[in-house]
């Protein structure tokens, strides 16, 4: 994904929008943290084993209310509410993931985050990720870099951590629609795992993106990812210096109007990217199909 400023002028001040989004994410994070100590109303969501809690909906209502108050004409796509229309012809769209990592929360594992992204003409221009557990927030404006906690600029370290030059730590993410018997997912995940010292499956992609931006991990591979949480984290990592490519090695385009089948990715430190692509391109083809024997 190329991190460049959109060619046409935007009808919104991105610095101001960043402030609104950060405040909304942090307020939702406080709500989530306060609710973690009590009983959780965990309910099934769909037929794929996903779940939703009352905290998801409460945090989403808070965020949507903040966004509607600041930008009443903008469209909103929210994890639980779906598409909320804005003014006719409006090109600005917010993506809201109020609790990325609900399955973790449901089993008492404190690995989750809040994510917001603002898109212009389907292209992400602002991303915010807040980690309620640590109280830290990361945000990025397209073409202007990433800010970490307390607004300090964040850049991906130029070198991997000691001992990780040949043994990277990676993360794997896949969408909820991926079934346990998906042979493409199994083949791709297995091939990538053979190339690293450890592969994390966090069930909270936004947490993995911030880890990549900080250099805590060295790369992420995503298969049929969820669009609602993808842009916020990807923009934070890309603006910090990570590089993104399609699984087949082609240029990565983040448009939210693309189907999940076109959003699979490799994201990594620049010096590691080609090595990971040597593996993923053995499975992925430019036509979107995969080299897997069924």
From TrEMBL:
It holds the Pfam family Inositol_P. InterPro entries: Inositol_monophosphatase-like. It comes from the Bacteria. This is Inositol monophosphatase. The lineage of its organism: Bacteria, Bacillati, Actinomycetota, Actinomycetes, Streptosporangiales.
